[in-house]
Amino acid sequence: MGFGKNNVLHGNHFRKDWQRRVKTWFDQPGRKLRRRNARKAKVAALGVRPLTLLRPAVRGQTVRYNTKLREGRGFTLGELKEAGISRKAALGLGIVVDHRRRNLSVEGKVVNVERLKTYKERLIVFPRKTGKPKKGDSSSEELKAPTIRPLPLLLPLPPSSIPEGPRKITEEERSFNAYKTLRNSRAEARYEGARKIRAAKKEEEEAAKKK
Prior knowledge:
Blueprint: H1 18-21, H2 28-46, E1 57-59, H3 62-65, E2 69-71, H4 77-83, H5 87-92, H6 106-122, H7 140-144, H8 171-175, H9 178-210
Antiparallel strand pairs: 1-2
Helix pairs in contact: 4-6
């Protein structure tokens, strides 16, 4: 390798100790077993409590991901109010609350309210004192009922969209002209202001003629 002119000499290191610096992942099977044992220990420690906290179903951000549903950060105060759960009670029942989130669609709010109501129906709340049950605690019959722990999620997310089955095209759909409808609606929106001004001017002229 030659060097020209009065340049800095290169300090290239082509014989580094590669074997000492390479990273290996031979502990994957051991890590897998350790994680599994940790999950079992968590289940035993929690007893009858749910493994995970309940989170809302929200749409992904941007046009690319808004067709998919995922678990959000927490339920809004409006959703909790619709489901009849107070904010303070929600924190004790394993429901995550996010006071910053806003409901921007009725459909999304309805989905999460139904999610909360379903969770509330399945929930068994043990009283702090066996002899003194408080309001909201489960009855003695409900406490004796067998408990289940569905995995991996407490409540599965609803389907993001319900596919429509095959059917015949109706005559109304066949005769519908989408291009023409869109053009007319755009034209109506464009000329709405001018038409309102023209109609108001006409009314004023007619009122002046009657005088």
